Amino acid sequence: MFADRVWWITGASSGIGAALAQALAQAGARVILSGRNIPALENVAAGCMTDTLILPFEATDFQKLPATTEAAWTWAQSRGGAVHGLVNNAGISQRSLAIDTVFEVYQRIIDVDLLAPIALTQSILPRMVQAGGGTIVAISSIAGIAGVPLRSAYCAAKHGLIGYHDSVRAETAHLGMKVMVVAPGSVRTEVSRNALDGHAQARGVSDAAIDNGMLPQEAAARILKAVAAGQRELILAETEEAQIAQLRRSNPDALFDRMEELVRQGYAQRMGVNR
């Protein structure tokens, strides 16, 4: 399923994206690496030891997206095939109370985490269908299943990401497309350090939960195993974070009570967010 196939990964310069690129390369895939940090992409490419295209672009530069998609597709065709897999992974998070968050934060996060992957998917989906189908993997979050404190913009975007990809799956399964949504919990990445605060500035510090989270390499291995098994959704979380996703679907009132109590007990203050 992966050998000699072309997979395009956004947000490939670090974290889950970089780990997925390396895992796909180890499985024999050719990889297209996208992001904004060219030196970091080059470093990831050097570790892949496979046929690799570095294709940097700004995810929210929607006008340039057709040309970017054309470049990816042309490269894949020069290898005798098509883009068989797309990983919508690029994103940015948030750590701020909604009441203290400027609207710019919502615009930025929804642009990057929701509209950008929609735009890229819309750009390449017709080509993938015409080529006989393929696989799309969307990296959402536990925060895309349940509304959690300090992440109102992030939750809005990641909920939307799940809804969009679920709809695309339903519409294109008979056309040869497979779509899997991944909802990670805490993974050891820079997501918290790069998260926006209420004033749209990078937070600059990490969380204990993230620092003690799942290794990106383990996350990547589980994702590829799920893709190979044909799963349509993967809850990539353990213990309490996995319970959050389960409660949202089985006992939402219990989850709402738990989240409200979390805030009452000073969760925001423990995260360094104060009114």
- Measure the end-to-end span: 51 Å
Which percent band covers the strand fraction? Answer: 5-15%
CATH topology: Rossmann fold
Estimated structural class:
alpha/beta
Strands side by side in the biggest sheet: 3-2-1-4-5-6-7
* Main sheet summary: 7 strands, parallel
Q: Indicate the CATH architecture.
A: 3-Layer(aba) Sandwich
Question: Which terms would index this structure?
Answer:
7 strands; 275 residues; globular; single chain; 7-stranded parallel β-sheet; alpha/beta; Rossmann fold; 13% strand
Summarize the structure in words.
With 275 residues, this protein is α/β, with parallel strands linked by helices. The chain has a single domain (6-241), classed as NAD(P)-binding Rossmann-like Domain (Rossmann fold, 3-Layer(aba) Sandwich). The chain is built from 10 helices and 7 strands. It has a 7-stranded parallel beta sheet with strand order 3-2-1-4-5-6-7, with helices on both faces. Helix 2 links the parallel strand 2 (30-33) and strand 3 (52-54). Helix 1 (15-26) packs across helix 7, helix 3 runs parallel beside helix 4 (103-130) and helix 4 (103-130) runs parallel beside helix 5. The radius of gyration is 18 Å and the shape is globular.
